[in-house]
Each structure stands twice: as structure tokens, then as C-alpha cells.
Design goal:
Elements (H helix, E strand, L loop, with lengths): L3 H9 L9 H13 L3 E8 L2 E7 L5 E6 L10 E3 L2 E3 L7 H16 L5 E6 L7 H6 L8 E4 L7 E5 L1 E10 L3 E2 L10 H7 L10 E2 L3 E2 L1 E9 L5 E2 L2 E10 L4 H11 L4 E8 L2 E2 L8 E4 L13 E4 L14 E3 H19 L2
Parallel strand pairs: 3-6, 3-7, 7-19, 8-18
Antiparallel strand pairs: 1-2, 2-6, 4-5, 5-20, 8-17, 9-15, 9-16, 10-14, 11-12, 13-15
Helix pairs in contact: 1-3, 3-7
Length: 331
């Protein structure tokens, strides 16, 4: 029987930031091949591939991502916690899925596939590519840290950039120019007072001011300023766009970037449930079946220097993935 803690630690020891997942892909592929799985590598870009492992197919696919955010944090075991980059997001989850799928296969259940993608943390190019594969599963169990609850849904994500413009001048004569930073500083606090949609299950729409750029030198009146916003959507984006356009008015230009819609997921009786405020690869994988979202660990420690997963929760996740697969296959 696979020791899921040891397997997770081995995965954590492999550095695999987005765009450099090759070594993690090789490790997982070799692990699966050694255990009799049929493994397909789908190249996403040179040196980076999705991993699709199957036996008979036609049932449930377990899926998560092998990339992590930087910087690398080496694994360490302290008490009842495994620390390290990817401990809960999402290499610990990958280890639990591997262990559960292998246990099911050993018991004769061959209708379980595994799909491990690259690039989730920066644009999800792996998931976009994986949706072109000839998937056969009826259900997709995606893995993100949900605190071991089935997610009832996830908020969407929408990148928006606001830009203000001014006129450069020597800072000794500011009256000859117009600062682009000042109007941005006046605009941004007003985001908190916008009336935005609220969903009964997913909660409120939120807007995060993630990045601000402006100016070139302290002795130059700045001609350009921009702020990158991340909107967490709970439904249709049209009312959100209308609110942002009213907010910007004629003071700022808005441009709209990558978009993933809000989702409501299939749940199974007998499992604890909760909504999630983050998004996942699920909207980009519609060919892989009816989606569910489940994983051990908490998003609250993901992307932090002290990212960890509890050992008991990690071990219990193996049992839960197995039980979830059997329940879905019986439906």
C-alpha cells in the first residue's frame, strides 16, 4: 500500500514552479508506469506536459495540477504537519489521488483515470490543452484545498486593468504637467463602496487591487499609472462591468483580461460541503465529465512560506477519494 505521506514528501522535494514542471511530470509518469498504468504525455510547451493515466476508463477522473507558485520551500516534517511548497496546493492532493487510484486499481476497479496538468497557477494552459484530449470519464473530481469538504461552487476570476493618463513635466514646475498617479489614488479607495452582486451560495463579489505601477522618476510629473484588479465573480459579469465602468467614468480607461466564470458543482450526499472563494481549472475541462471539487488542506496557507498539510487529513483524503469514486461509479 502506498505511503501517501512519503509520496507527498517526494513530490514536494521536486521544484516545479509554473513553466518548469518537467521534473515533476517525469516523476509522476514513472511512478504510474511502474504500477501498470497506461500513461499519455500531452506536450503543452517544450519540456512541459500534462499526464493522463488510465486503465479502462469510462468512469471517474481525479485531476489536479503539478505546478506551484514560487519561491521554492523545501519539505519538512514537524509534528503532525508536512510543510513545503505545494503541501496543500496541490502536491499533497496529487499524492492522495495517486494513492487512492492505485488502491482502486489493485482492488480491480479500472474505471478511474488520473489527469495531472501544468500551468494552473499562471493562465491554466495545461487545462486548456487537456480539454482537447479524448476524455471518456463521466465525472471529474478536481483537487484543490477545500479543507476536506466537497465544494458546492467556486467564484470566478476576472482580470481588469485600470489606466490613468497625465502629462509629464519637471517636478519643480508641476503646474506645467498633470499627474496620472493622483487621480488613480482618488479612484481606488472608491472600489470598496461599489454595489456588486451577491450570490446566496458563493457570497459577495470582491475586487482586489493587486498591482499598481506609475511614474518613472521622483523628479518627473508622471504621465502614466495603472492598477491591476482581480475580480472574484459570483455570477454574470455584465453587472460587474457596468459598475466598474461607472466607477472609472472619464477618469480612467479599463481593459479586460482573462476570465473564468463562477461555477456551481455536483455534490454527493453524505459528504460535508462548503462554497469556495477561489477558482480552479474545472471550467476549462468540460469534456472530462460532471465536475466535483475536493481536497485536503486549507487555501488559507497556500502560497505562503508556511504552507502545510495535516498528516491525518492527508491520509484520510485517500480514503475519501476512494469512497467518492465508488459512490460516483455506482450512480
Amino acid at each position: 500500500m502506498t505511503d501517501v505521506v512519503s509520496l507527498a514528501a517526494e513530490l514536494l522535494a521536486i521544484q516545479s514552479p509554473t513553466r518548469d514542471e518537467g521534473r515533476a511530470v517525469e516523476f509522476v509518469s514513472r511512478w504510474l508506469i511502474a504500477r501498470g498504468w497506461n500513461v499519455t504525455l500531452q506536450e503543452v510547451s517544450p519540456g512541459r506536459s500534462n499526464v493522463w493515466a488510465s486503465r479502462r476508463g469510462g468512469g471517474v477522473t481525479f485531476s489536479t495540477h503539478l505546478d506551484t507558485v514560487p519561491p521554492y520551500v523545501a519539505p519538512r516534517l514537524e509534528g503532525d504537519r508536512l510543510f513545503g511548497r505545494g503541501a496543500c496546493d496541490a502536491k499533497g492532493i496529487a499524492a492522495a489521488m495517486l494513492a487512492a487510484a492505485d488502491r482502486l486499481a489493485d482492488a480491480g476497479e479500472e474505471r478511474v483515470d488520473l489527469l495531472f496538468v501544468v500551468g494552473e497557477e499562471r493562465g491554466s494552459d495545461g487545462a486548456r490543452a487537456a480539454n482537447q484530449l479524448e476524455a471518456t470519464s463521466r465525472f471529474l473530481v478536481n483537487g484543490e484545498p477545500t479543507e476536506s469538504k466537497l465544494a458546492t461552487g467556486c467564484k470566478g476570476a476576472w482580470r481588469v486593468t485600470a489606466r490613468t493618463r497625465g502629462r509629464e513635466a519637471h517636478s519643480a514646475y508641476p503646474d506645467l504637467g498633470a499627474s496620472a498617479i493622483v487621480p488613480m489614488c482618488e479612484l481606488l479607495p472608491a472600489l470598496a463602496s461599489l454595489v456588486l452582486p451577491v450570490d446566496a451560495a458563493l457570497g459577495p463579489t470582491t475586487v482586489n487591487i493587486g498591482v499598481i505601477r506609475g511614474g518613472t522618476e521622483a523628479n518627473i510629473v508622471p504621465a502614466h499609472c495603472e492598477a491591476e484588479l482581480m475580480v472574484r465573480l459570483v455570477g454574470d459579469r455584465a453587472p460587474v462591468q457596468a459598475a466598474l465602468e461607472r466607477w472609472a467614468g472619464d477618469r480612467a480607461e479599463l481593459s479586460y483580461g482573462s476570465f473564468i466564470p463562477a461555477q456551481h458543482f455536483h455534490v454527493v450526499p453524505g459528504f460535508d460541503t462548503a462554497p469556495m472563494a477561489y477558482t480552479s481549472d474545472i471550467p476549462l475541462l468540460p469534456r472530462w465529465g460532471t465536475p466535483l471539487l475536493f481536497g485536503p488542506g486549507s487555501i488559507h496557507v497556500a502560497h505562503t512560506p508556511d504552507e502545510f498539510i495535516g498528516l491525518d487529513e492527508l491520509r484520510a483524503a485517500v480514503d475519501t477519494y476512494e469512497r467518492l469514486a465508488r459512490t460516483l461509479l455506482a450512480s
